[in-house]
What we know:
Layout: H1 10-20, H2 28-48, H3 52-57, E1 67-68, E2 75-76, H4 78-90, H5 103-117, H6 124-144, H7 148-153, H8 158-161, H9 163-174, H10 179-189, H11 206-226, H12 243-248, H13 282-295, E3 302-309, H14 311-317, H15 325-328, H16 332-342, H17 352-355, H18 358-365, E4 367-371, E5 382-387, E6 392-395, H19 410-421, H20 427-438, H21 448-452
Parallel strand pairs: 3-4
Antiparallel strand pairs: 1-2, 3-5, 5-6
Amino acid sequence: MNIAAPHGAPIDRLATFVADLRYENIPTDVVAKTKIHIADTLGAALAGARSAEFGLARKIAGQDGKTRLWGTQAFASARDAALINGVAAHAFELDDAGGCDHSGAVVMPAVLAAVSTSEQVFSGKQLIASVVAGYDVGRRVLEAAGGYDSHNSLGWHSTGTCGTMAAAAAVANLQGLSQQGCLDAITLATSFSSGLWAFIHDGSQAKKIHAGRAAEGGLLAATLAGEGFAGPLKVFEDVWGGFFRSFNKSSGEPEKLSDALAESWKVNRAVLKPYASCRGAHSAVDALEDILLETQQQPGNIVSMHLHLSEMLMEMCGHKGSNSMASTQMSLPYALAARCVFGTAGLDAYSSQCRSDPRVGAVMQRMDLEIDVAMRPLDEPVLTLLFSDGSRASRMVPRATGSSERPMQREAIDDKFRHLAGMSLQDDQVSNLLNLLDTLQHVDDCRRLETLLAGDADNQPTFR
Length: 464
């Protein structure tokens, strides 16, 4: 069944798409990918329930509520839980990317908070459709705002700015709002957009709150819209106070809000993250893996590493940090050094013990990073290794592991989920949750997830 082509301004067409989207409209392959991203987000969040940021954020929660704080036995109000669960999902940099940017961490906390507080019973099919709607809107707003490099290079963190609209659209679809209601939800959410890249300069934990704040803001916007609260209908036009002028200093490209609706499914643009670092570091780690495999060299044989990278990537991930966890996860040199020293750039390599290992610092001292002015902002780095036998090898990986061009295999996806979810759940709970998510389209009542997401993170040590 196809969705009829909507009419009107781009934002009107997008709102109609969100209002009309149902599970039956979604291609089978898109459903399959969406389920993977739902599970991936919940796995990342269950691990994130062991983070320092989750522990700090939950201190602001009130005592009353019926929305689960994932990985614990505790509950909070819907909005508090959306914020805190969003923090958990993004805490360890293992949630998906390539959407708004981190779409899963803003969409899933919002829609499950809505599920938990509604008198209506929502099926797995309804949940899937709402998530697809959220991914679509979040990415489309970012593309209309000039794309990741243009929007983020001005200092905005698109997870917090564009992600708010993603969460609003997802909840609006789930709640079955009319076209006008979906329009109000999305446009209201622009007033809750926030998130600055200033955290990058000092290892601040602020980045972790952006996903949660977007989930909370989107939930609030959709809830208000459902009550008839009107949004600013000119916010995506070339007007003073409009989203594009404010967040990109231009009129934007509003036609991208509705370009190829129901043809270009934006969840397909999202990528999984095998490494516990900013996505900007992943291609370099893949390049290291490829070179070591092809040359049959060992990390101990590397004399030096040289990286050519864009100015944007240098600003974002070029520092050789290994102090706070938040700062270290934004360090491309650390990710490479961790792979050399520990054999992995996964979460275990970011513990305080690993970060203080002198071998990591020694490897980073043998790295030379150079800005290539010919590179575009989102170009991936070129890694060159010099080995002790005098040989050299260079590699640039255009799209990192977890993308459609270099996909994670299903076994690796499931292993990641089991490892992360197992940080807060017992083994049998992990298996039951994964089985339910694998067959989510057959679930009649998504409140079953509330029970399966109850864990014992409170009795486990904080992962630092």
